[in-house]
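re: ur question from earlier - yeah i can do the single chain one, its not a big deal. heres the input i used so u can compare w yours
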Amino acid sequence: MNFCDKKEFKVGRVFESALARWMIRRGFCVLPVYDIAEQQFKGPQLFACDGGFVAPDMLAMKPSGQILFVEAKCKSGFTWSRQYQRFETGIDIRHYLDYQKVEEKTGLPLWIVFLQRGGAVKDAPPDKPSSPRGLFGNEIRILAARESHRHDNWGKSGMVYWSPEYPREAPALRLIAEYDSVIREGGAA
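and the output i got, formated as tokens:
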């Protein structure tokens, strides 16, 4: 089985399409960049004088001149951090560092968004039995300033984590839209 046959890949593609349609309904034109290079199973890259960097999923533009990159992640729900006593989600550090380089090289803002399906969460306390549900995210510069923590628990480079509850005064991940709004308006099942 190759990567393109995996359920996670297919679910991610459905979400990326739904998110693009949701953004279009909000006045954006969307250029998807998430097609996989044929038979190479590599994601898209941005090339610069000093190398190539993993590119985000789409470029979104408005006639007003607003242009931004969007990296879309679809998750079953936030996980409960026993160590920090809060809900968190994250991405691969290597990709995160590349996304920061993409923003630096292009001068365009880059958003990372997470569609969280919600539901029961393993190890969550009785007063928080379910993960928050919805489209959460923020601009990468804000996320960089509000990381919850990093951990070498996944893959070659580890993971970086954020929370919709941390820091308390200005959480890293903010609710952008309700889950059903993105899925219903985006045309996904």
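The two ends are 25 Å apart (CA to CA). not sure if urs matches, ping me
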